[in-house]
Amino acid sequence: MAFQKRTITDEASLYEYAVGALGRRMRSVAELKRLLRNRVPRDEAGSILVEMVILRLKEQKYLNDPKYAATYSVYRRDNEKYGERRVITDLKAKGLHPEVIQKAVKEAYSGVNEEQLARDFLKRKRLKKPADNRQAAKVFRTLMRAGFTSRTSIKILKSWDVDDEVLTALQEEESSAQS
Fold first, then answer.
1. How do residues 92-101 score in pLDDT, each as one tens digit?
2. What is the dihedral of CA 160, 163, 169, 170, to 10 degrees?
3. What does the domain layout of the chain look like in residue ranges?
C-alpha cells in the first residue's frame, strides 16, 4: 500500500506541521514554503494559508533568513571545511536572496585563510599527495567542487610538486568549464 500525504486545510494543523519541520532542521523561508505548499490544496485558499503560517512564524522569530544564512555559512566553514563558492551555491539553491547570501558569507569567511581551509578540507577527506597526474586531477576537481578557487587549488598542488603541464591543463579545463 502506497503512502499518501494528508492534505491540510486549517491554519492550526499547518502551523503545527511547520513547527515540526523546523524542529527537525533549520529551513529558509523558501524551503518551508515549498514544503507547506505540498500539504495544502493547490488553490488560492491553500496559498493564503501558507502565507499566513509563514507570517506567523516570522513574527515569532522561528523563521529568519539572515540568521539562517549566517548559521549555515559558519557551520559549512567550520564543520564541513567548504569554501565560499560552495556555500554561496548551496544557499542559492535554498532560495535565499543574493544580498542576504553575500552578507552572511562575507562575514563568515572574513579573516579565513582559504589555503589553510582547503588543506583542512583535504585532511578531512583523507586526500593525500597525488602519486600521478590522474590523482592530481581528482584532487583539483574535488577542491573546485568544495568551493575553493582554482588559484588556491593550484597553489596546493604546486606545493606537492605536481607537474606544471598538468596544472596548466587543469586550469584551462576549469576556465573553459566556466565559460
1. 999 999 999 9
2. -10
3. 11-59, 65-109, 114-178
